[in-house]
């Protein structure tokens, strides 16, 4: 089946949830809204492969943004328009909190700067993401003059239409997955993160998808080291609003785990993925940081002060190996780019997968096509929902582990297989041969970690003997 066939099937099976990936850049400049908002609008008005209809759809999206998107410097003008007209349509991001004293939901509009708008509880139950990070929407604001001289806001919501995924029917997605073969679905996922799958062989496709495992599998510890320009950090920076990328420099225990002064939970409690880019430049200002990382990467929990807390963030470490891999292996090991304090055997043994970045091709323009893929926000939400599930016991249906694997090895392999199954077979249907393929791939990545542990030990021994 060609990429055109996959495109057409995606349009038919997921109407309004797929978008042609090259269209976003055409309207991105001049409008400071997230890519996933633009993709959502394009998915609503440009879900077709007919060029004439695409042009009309793009024109419509541009009109909507031009007419209703509120720039912060226009906020007072817009409020005046609401007052004078009685009603005015805007595009803005709305966050909602529960005011315990008033026993009411209160909304804030990011660009308009409104912070005390009462929100109907039915709207909150329809769109639960309002309470968890906010929702971009097309909103009809109405003016409420009866609220003058009272604590209540002069503005209210008359109608609310989300322009990002505000709820997700995971069962529907699982059911529609059955319309695709495994290879078609793999291509659609690659197209969803912006790649043209026809540019890669089967091995390269699986390597690219393995980068998504931390997004779909909780408490997954992943490392990828390789040449520059292979897109190691792209996924965690651009594709999911639930991952954060930290580029080198100093970080602290308070930032990562818990600030004892404020009681504020750190990054591991607020993000699904905490990714460290340019890991060689990473420095910790706290002496206990590496020990806390070891504890967290082992159990998903950490102690700070008198409390023991748990979190579900996956940990990703990406960086560059500037020398030829064979040359590195002659004199050193594949964790050499790590900071010295992180070349700790116990820490390294916590990694579930080491992806060989030197096998990933460097990014070229022909790797990015005009195929259809899931809207970024839809993709990010369904992989996030799948974090709540686990397929780690599926291996037991067909295979048994040998005695040469210890408990940590087995856990690593199970988590990698679980992640691949959730990505490629969310509906729970797969063959024994497919399961064997994922199992061998998972064992390869864990074996690479174990081999380097032995090599680090030998390198350290040689250094002591000199």
Could you write a compact summary of the structure shown?
This protein is an alpha/beta fold and 466 residues long.
Name the CATH architecture of the largest domain.
Answer: 3-Layer(aba) Sandwich
* Count of domains: 3
Overall strand count: 14
CATH topology annotation of the largest domain = Rossmann fold
Strand order of the largest sheet: 4-3-2-5-6
**Which structural class is indicated by helix and strand composition?**
alpha/beta
* Main sheet properties: 5 strands, antiparallel
Mean pLDDT: 89
Rg (C-alpha, Å): 24 Å
**Distance between the amino and carboxyl termini:** 60 Å
Task: Summarize the amount of helix as a percent range.
Answer: 40-55%
- Oligomer classification: single chain
What share of the residues does DSSP label as strand, in percent? 15-25%
- Please give the CATH class of the largest domain: Alpha Beta
Number of helices: 19
Low-confidence stretches: none
Shape: globular
Protein name: ATP-dependent Lon protease
Pfam family, one: BrxL_ATPase
GO biological process, one term: proteolysis
Keywords: Hydrolase, Protease
Summarize the structure in words:
The chain is of the alpha/beta class. It has three domains: 3-69, no CATH class; 72-162; 171-386, Rossmann fold (3-Layer(aba) Sandwich). The chain has helices at residues 3-13, 24-28, 35-45, 51-68, 75-85, 121-126, 170-177, 182-192, 202-210, 213-216, 234-239, 253-256, 267-270, 289-299, 325-331, 345-348, 376-386, 407-424, 432-465, and strands at 18-20, 87-99, 104-109, 114-119, 135-143, 155-162, 221-226, 243-251, 273-284, 301-304, 307-310, 314-320, 353-356, 372-374. The strands form four sheets. Strands 4-3-2-5-6 form a five-stranded antiparallel β-sheet. A hairpin with a 4-residue loop joins strand 2 (87-99) and strand 3 (104-109). The chain is globular and about 80 Å long. The model has no long low-confidence stretch (mean pLDDT 89). Pfam families: BrxL_ATPase, BrxL_N. This is ATP-dependent Lon protease. It comes from Halococcus thailandensis JCM 13552.
